[in-house]
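Title: Prediction job returns without error message
Component: structure pipeline
Severity: low
Priority: P3
Assignee: unassigned

Description:
Job completed but the reporter wants confirmation the result is attached to the right record. Sequence as submitted:
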Amino acid sequence: MSSPSGPVRAVVASIAVTALLCTAACTSTTPSKAASSSPPTTSSVTPTPTPTKPPPKPAKNPFTGIGGVPQTSTIAVKIDDTPPGRPQVGIDKADIVYIEEAEGGLTRLAAVFGTHKPAVGYVRSTRPSDPDLLLQFGKITEAASGGGGTALPLLDKSGIKGWINDRGAAYYSRVSRSSDYINLELDLAQVAKKVKTAKPKPMGFQFSAATASLKGTGKGTDVRTRVGSQQVEFKYSATLKKYVRYIDGVRQVANDGQPVATTNVIVQQTKIVPYPQDTDVNGNPSQFTITTGKGLVSVFRNGHRLDGTWQRAGLNGGTVLKTKSGKPILLAPGNSWVALVRTGVGTSGT
């Protein structure tokens, strides 16, 4: 068989070269786009979870340590504390009651109502030192029948709202009773709907139901002291777990028949000075109780007595109670009566 001619050989050679180029192209090792990309990296560090804060505990009633903060305005009422004014109305519903020295050695009550808003009586006049005492509760409302001398101007200047019967304030009524002038009652529930003054806020008192702080303290079941010329006495009732007020040996009850009783008795020694700008019909000057500064205090709770100091830095500050070692005096949850006595007046608590 004869060999292919020249032209034929050229065509065959061209086909062979083309085949070789195709084979080389088809077997190329050029990496694909996917293969050339960098592999994903994974972190070996586990992120620390953000700690969640527990929800805050709801605020407690700052006047009693029981229940939540009342949502209506705080109202203080001046209440009679003489035999014709007893039994008082609504006094057993107050959160805090102050026994104050008035003219001629007599006493008046300044009752602070935050939790409850009952009918109260029998309402009497405000005194010049009341604004200083009450400002620790904030710009609250004070209810009074009236006020002599400079008492009402001082109340107005303080920013405390006066709810004054002599100025025509509403919801007062005269009731029929043996005393023809100590007979003024006030419906606090109605007043609370109208006033927009400060609600209960912390004013220095601290509470704890625990009794560990009472270890090593003295007995305090029969409290005796004096405000003005009036004997002040409370006797501890283990049944009620409260101190019941006694006057001249007689157990006191409110107008509703409930005992006039308190969870805590606080005897606060204060400086008391005459205030001649305000006098009664007999010419006796009002007594001005200074409730800022510091002094000695005796606290009675759960049948025990704790002695220490009180301190109030200024009119807008609260009253802080501390033991002799400087720790807070913790009140038992409940209401409190505060006897504002003269510095140096003795207190027994046997």
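Comment from assignee: result matches the submitted record. The domain at 75-194 is CATH 3.50.90.10 (YerB-like fold).
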